[in-house]
Amino acid sequence: MSALDLTIIALYLLFITWRGFQEAQTHNTTDDFFLADHTLSWPLIGLSLYATNISISSIIGLAGSGYKTGISVFNYEWTGSVILVLFAIFIVPYYLRHQLITMPEFLERRYDSRSRTYFSFISIAINVFIDIAGSLYASSLFLKGIFPEIDLYVFIIGMAMVSGLYTVAGGLRAVVITDSIQAILLTFGSIAVAAIVYNEVGSWNEIQQQIAPEFLSLIRPLDDEVIPWPTLLISLPILGFYFACSNQYMVQRVLGAKSIDAGRKGVIFAAALKLPLLFIIVLPATLGRIIYPDLANPNLIFPELMLDFLPAGILGIVLTGFVAALMSSIDSALTAASSIATLDLYKKVRPGSSQKHLIKVGKVFILVAVFAASLWAPFINQFPTLWEYLQAVLSYISPPVVTCFIFGLFWSKATANSSFYSLILGGLMGIFLMINNYFYHFVPPIHYLYSATIIFIFSSAVMIITSIFTKNKVKHSIPGSVWQLSLTGTLSLSKKNPWYRSYQFYGALVCFIIVLIVYLFR
């Protein structure tokens, strides 16, 4: 790397920290700090969701899996886009009209405090030990490949400090603004690398002669080790629903929308932004097999391409985009974990706390969370691959949560006891399958995506059976399903806006593009 590249990265880090502190004087309430006082427009929401979704761990994971197994890893992205469109149409207005601040809050208002407390602890653990720690680990590997003489912990601690500082200072508004900048930089960098790869490998006919057909197919066989095709129908949508519709890490941006229309359009914008990732990250990494046929570590395919082909200056900008992606995922997880710890746990213990005091507690927890994640990050190296760590752990943990949200949103007869028992028994089923698959084989090991489906079906059975034989003792404070909330105009076009400005049109357009992509790369 040249001095110019290093200067560009250093200036960007200084700018991001300064921008966070610029927002430090504007926080008077928890709504302001955690939800940007409901002032977020749809472009900011969309760009921030996109930047948060495509963290450096996702980039390295997607690219590494693309190089090793082909483009089938993109199935996570297009199924996620479908879930985002459905989220925008049906669930976003429900969340915003009931002025939710956190996702565990929904479980208490729909069920009771037991479900809220359980999910609060689960959410914090996922944010700290998966989202933040995974991003720190991925970035440290990435940067250590560039500066091999520097210890791994130096990168982890350095990036954690920068992200933690501007998140503490600026709250959600600073996070969303910096995420929007980072999304643009990241996209520019990925396009630059992709253009170089396409230029190097030649025409599509030449590509097909050098890459095995299965590496260019999204639909994989029943016995595929990565993503067998049946998992596209249930397993991936389960993970997608958790990530898009119930994870504070993502939903917090939508909760800060200035209007329902802004929230809906922002989510659909994010769904659209995910689709080009096939062409700017996954496919270029797969084609990297032509340039580097014997790469020892698939996770380093993108860094290899960047360092070998990008000129000075451009390399600095692209690396800045990758550093930005790291901080985007960290700051998002920090604000999510902090809001849950403060509003769902601490406020329960100290209900009389002032707004200023709660903001201070939230800032303290941000520092605690980033410290804990920094300690855990190096241990991720003990798992087979980063991508398996990120996806497999969620496959065992998230299905019971998804069950409670889906039934709570769409079935008015779901009871408080059914939610709590689904979380507890579904969680125990997840622990059993995790132990069986990785440690002691009580039954033949089951693919972690199939395991997610089994846990979801089991949790759903507990939910339905328990709901039939129990009744709610406490009346919930929000409607028992989205159907009880007025959805007039949800699918019909508004007379105020022409069709080309409606969220329905753009949602349908995103779905059409998804169908086209899957058909072309089937």
From TrEMBL:
<keyword id="KW-1133">Transmembrane helix</keyword>
<feature type="transmembrane region" description="Helical">
    <location>
        <begin position="117"/>
        <end position="138"/>
    </location>
</feature>
<dbReference type="InterPro" id="IPR001734">
    <property type="entry name" value="Na/solute_symporter"/>
</dbReference>
<comment type="similarity">
    <text>Belongs to the sodium:solute symporter (SSF) (TC 2.A.21) family.</text>
</comment>
<feature type="transmembrane region" description="Helical">
    <location>
        <begin position="6"/>
        <end position="21"/>
    </location>
</feature>
<dbReference type="Pfam" id="PF00474">
    <property type="entry name" value="SSF"/>
</dbReference>
<feature type="transmembrane region" description="Helical">
    <location>
        <begin position="150"/>
        <end position="169"/>
    </location>
</feature>
<feature type="transmembrane region" description="Helical">
    <location>
        <begin position="76"/>
        <end position="96"/>
    </location>
</feature>
<feature type="transmembrane region" description="Helical">
    <location>
        <begin position="389"/>
        <end position="411"/>
    </location>
</feature>
<feature type="transmembrane region" description="Helical">
    <location>
        <begin position="181"/>
        <end position="198"/>
    </location>
</feature>
<feature type="transmembrane region" description="Helical">
    <location>
        <begin position="446"/>
        <end position="469"/>
    </location>
</feature>
<feature type="transmembrane region" description="Helical">
    <location>
        <begin position="266"/>
        <end position="292"/>
    </location>
</feature>
<dbReference type="InterPro" id="IPR038377">
    <property type="entry name" value="Na/Glc_symporter_sf"/>
</dbReference>
<feature type="transmembrane region" description="Helical">
    <location>
        <begin position="312"/>
        <end position="337"/>
    </location>
</feature>
<feature type="transmembrane region" description="Helical">
    <location>
        <begin position="42"/>
        <end position="64"/>
    </location>
</feature>
<feature type="transmembrane region" description="Helical">
    <location>
        <begin position="358"/>
        <end position="377"/>
    </location>
</feature>
<keyword id="KW-0472">Membrane</keyword>
<protein>
    <submittedName>
        <fullName>Sodium:solute symporter</fullName>
    </submittedName>
</protein>
<keyword id="KW-0812">Transmembrane</keyword>
<feature type="transmembrane region" description="Helical">
    <location>
        <begin position="420"/>
        <end position="440"/>
    </location>
</feature>
<feature type="transmembrane region" description="Helical">
    <location>
        <begin position="503"/>
        <end position="521"/>
    </location>
</feature>
<feature type="transmembrane region" description="Helical">
    <location>
        <begin position="226"/>
        <end position="245"/>
    </location>
</feature>
